[in-house]
Fold this sequence. Notes:
Helix content is 86%, strand content 0%. The chain is an all-alpha fold.
Amino acid sequence: MHRKKHLNAFNELRVRLKLMEVDMKKNAKFIKLTERIQVVYASTIRELIKRGEKYLSMNPETDDTIRVAIDMDKYISILEKISIKR
Length: 86
């Protein structure tokens, strides 16, 4: 896959994660639904990390690579927190 496609996929996954965060907050009173969203949320973070790693491995340092690396670090931290709670 071309590096631009990895970046586009990475950005799409970021948008999906934001939408899931909104859904989890909005539906916090529905415990089963929130639990299912959390499972998909964790899976989506794993995919975002994979895409980010692929993008970083084939790209010279640019503003986008710095942003991708920062976002990946943020989501790795979130994934670790989710894993600890379980």
